[in-house]
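Sanity check

After download, print the first record. It should look like this:
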Amino acid sequence: MSSGMKNEGGLWRVLYVVLLGQSVSFSMALMSFTSSLSANLGVSAPLALAFSAYLPLTLVFGSILLYRRQKLQISWYWYALLAFVDVQGNFFVNKAFQFSSITSVTILDCATVIWVIILTWFFLGTKYSLWQFLGAALCVSGLCLVLLSDSGVGGGGGTNPVLGDALVIAGTCFFAFSNVGEEYCVKKVGRIEVIAMLGLFGMLVSLIEMALFEFKTLKSISWSAEVILIFAGFGISGFLFTSLTPLVLQASGATLFNLSLLTADMWAVVIRVFLYHQKVDWLYYVSFIFVGIGLVVYSKTFYREKYSNELPKLENNEPDQPYQLLPEEGARV
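Expected structure tokens:
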């Protein structure tokens, strides 16, 4: 393969991942927006919101899995554990909107990157270069500026922004385990089975926890058309987010996936300024600069290292034998 064709293929792959990442980022911003709207209406039902996203996943991808009539390639209890972790992440982040602004929640949600780097380093054996650590560190610095603003320096929005920030950070810990586990499963068995099982067990776990912790809240909700539309909007955006996530994980991994979601912050600022008519503290804009530079540094290093090592070295015009792929090791569809 000529270097020109290789570079062109690498460019298209980068564009493909970027577009996928931005699609997921936009759907994440829609989830934040609808969850924020529910909080503004006084609806405190984070588990019910999560259920509205898991239900369509189960119906669509579960039907595909049943049509294929294939046996599970990963034991069901691993999917149950993965779903449990994912539900807790959704609970904490959605609950945070009761206490903090949409801008703070969305930016701090990107702290998942920190935990993902740690988990992929120890459990998946992912190696990171000094430049990648620098890019991630710049992103973390941006998140620290948000904490500084919400602690009182910049006057963050919300009834109790510090508590809201703590809930988001707790949620990111669960999301990190979920992302890394989902990346492992998707690269092992394909996305249909993973999404179907995540939807099914996520729906069951959220139902059980709703019965235990949100039963009285759900009974007290005034179910207007506006509230129903909010739940439907969260369900649709959650469906898009979870459906597209495995594609990004297959193409780039959990770390770059979470870094790609940082652009959701821009949508959060637009929502806060134009829909909620709230002022955004100057520290948020500085945070965006740090996060943006960090994303560029990490992404550039990731793809340079990935594609410079894409093809094995040749000796005497013969492929290096240790790099040859055995037939049974081919990627699953």
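If your output differs, re-run the checksum step. Summary of this record's structure: The first strand starts at residue 314 and ends at 315.
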